[in-house]
Amino acid sequence: MPIKSIRPDYRGEYKDGIEHFNGQQLLNICWEKHTMLGWPMCVPVPATLTFGQLIDNVLPGIYAIHPDFEKIDWDKVQWSTSKGPLIPNRNKSLREHELRHKAQIRFRTPELNGHNNGG
Amino acid sequence: MTKAKKLSLKQNYTMLTKGLDWEPSYQKKEDIFPQLSFEGIKIHNWDNWEDPFRLTIDAYWKYQGEKEKKLYAIIDAFQQNNGQFNVTDARYIQALKIFINAVVGLEYSAWRGFTRLGRELGDASPRIATQMQAIDEMRHATTQTHAISHYNRFFEGMGNAPYQYDHAWYLSIPKSFFDDACSAGPFEFIVAISFAFEYVLTNLVFMPWMSGAAYNGDMSTVSFGFSAQSDEARHMTLGLEVIKFLLEQDPDNVAIVQKWIDKWFWRAYRVLSLVATMMDYMLPKRVMSWDEAWTIYYEENGGALFADLARYGIKPPRNAEVTIKEKGRLSHEMWSIFYANRDVVGFPLWLPSQEEMAWFSEKYPDTFDKYYRPRFEYWQELEDLGTPYTNSTLPQLCQVCQWPCLFTEADDPTEFVHRETEFDGEIFHFCSDGCHQIFEDEPKKYIQAWLPVHQIYMGNCLLPDADPSSPDFNPMAEAIRYMGIKPGVDGGLFKDHSDAKNWEKWTERPANIHQGASTDFVRKTSSQNSK
Fold first, then answer.
1. Of A14, B10, B215, B351, which has the fewest CB atoms closer than 10 Å, so is most exposed?
2. Chain B residues with CB inside 8 Å of A1's CB?
C-alpha cells in the first residue's frame, strides 16, 4: 500500500528532484566510526566532480577539523556504498562511479577509530 | 413560575451528546462523515463508545476556569517577584527556548487535529470528547505562551515561536511529526496522538520535565505543567478508551491498530529525543537521567500496559527493544550534534562540567566514560585554546523523522545506522529501521517531506530582502535568518552569549553554576563579599 488516502489516485509531490538543485546533485558522505563528526553529511556537488577532486577539495571542508583527518592514508581507505564495496578511480567522475543524486558513500579508515577513542 | 428541576450529570451529558445529535434524512451518513471508511477501520456500533468522563459544558468551563484563575495568579506573582532570576542559572532558560519553540507548536497542532475529529467522528459522544480536548490543547498553547513570554522580556530566542516552529531546521522534527498525524485519517490520528503519544509517552514529558522545572526554581513552568497535567489525565483516559473501542468493534481492526501503534510509538520516541537532551544536559539541577526515566515510564509502565492489551492480540510496539538499547547514548549523541552545530541553532551550547560528567559516569556506567567523555574533554581543551570545535556542513536527514542521520546501530554505538531505499527511481535515507519501515508502508506520503537541508541547497530558504547576487552574500547566514534564528545572537557558545552576560550583570550570580562566573559582574561581587 503506497499510501492510505481518501482519493485513490492521490500522490504527494516529490520535492527533491535533481532539477531543483541548480545543475548540481546531492551527495551524502559518512566517515565510519567517527561519531564525533562523521555522521552522514549532505553536500551539493556537480556530477562531473572526479573522485580525486572529492578527496582533495570537498572532504577537507567537511572533516579537516577532526584530528584524525590529516593522518588518513588515502591508499588504505575502504570505500563503500549501500550496494557494497567501492573501488574508486581518482580520475573518474561521480557519474562514472554511478553515484547519482542523493547517493551515499561511506569511508572507513581502519587504523583510525576516533580521537582518544572518542569517535 | 416553576423552576425547572436541575438535570443530573448523566442526563445533562446525554442531552449534550445524543440529545443534540440527529439522524440525517436527506443526506447519506457516509457523505456527511466521508473520512470514516478509507482507513479500513470497521465500526459496527458507535453506541458502545463509553465516554470515560461525561464532561458537560458547564462542568468543563467551571473546572477549567478555576484552573486558569490559579495559574494566572501564580504567573502574576512570579512576574512581580522577578521569578525569572530565581531559577538555578541561565542555562536552565535555554531549555525553555526548546519548550516555547517546539512544544507550543505541537499543542497548537493538536488543537487543529482534535478540532477535525470533533467534526469527523461518527457519533456525538466522541465528537464532544475530542472537541473538549481540542479546547484543552489550545489552552495549553496559550498558557505556555503566557508563562514563558515573561522570560522573553529578558532573554533572547523566545520572541518568534510560531515562525521558528514553521521554519527552523531542527523544529521540522516536531512539526513533521504532527503534520504526519494531522494529514492521516481520523482513526490513525486519534491512535497516534491519544494513545501512542498521550497514553504511552506523555508522562515522560510531564513528570521528569515538570519536576525538573520545580527543582530548578521555575514556578511559572511548574504551574502551567500541573494545570495541563490534569487535562492530560483526561486525554490519557480517552486514549485508552479509543484503543479498547476500536479493538472490540471488529477483529480486523487489530492489525491496523497494531501498525499504527508501531509507527507512532517510534515517531513519538524520536521526537522525545529532545526531552532526553533537555533532561540530561540542560537542567542545571537534574532530577533523573533519561535512562532512568525511560526505564520507569516506558519499560515498567508501558510493559504493564501492553501486558494488559495482550488479550486483544496487541503486542508491544515494534522496535521497542531498540529504544531500550539506545537509552544509554541518546542524550549524549544528541548533545554532541547540537554542540557541533551550535552556530545554526536558536540557543547557545555548553560542554558538561566535571561535576556533570561525574554524574553521567554514575548514571551511564556502560557508555559515558567509554564513548562520550573523551570527546567532551577534547572539546573542552579546544575551547580553552580558543579554537572550539565546530561543524560547518549540513547533515543528511532522515526522510521520515527529519533528524540528522546521527544515530548508531542498536548493538554497536560506534557504527552509524545506514538505511536506504529506492522509490520511483529516487534514493531515500533513514535514521533507523523504525523510520525505514514507516516509509515503506506509505512511500507516496513521505516523498513529500520538506527537508530543510535540501531546501537550503535549492536556495529556497531566503528572506525577500536577501540578495544572492551581492558580493558579501553568505548563503548559510541567510538560511539561518530565514529560519527565524539571529546569526551571531541566538546560537554559539553559552559563555559568550548575551543571556549569560546579562544574567551575571542582573543577578550577580554565575550564569553556569558549575563553571563559575565568566564576567566581572560576579567576580567583583564575590571578591567584595569575601572581604
1. B10
2. 441-442
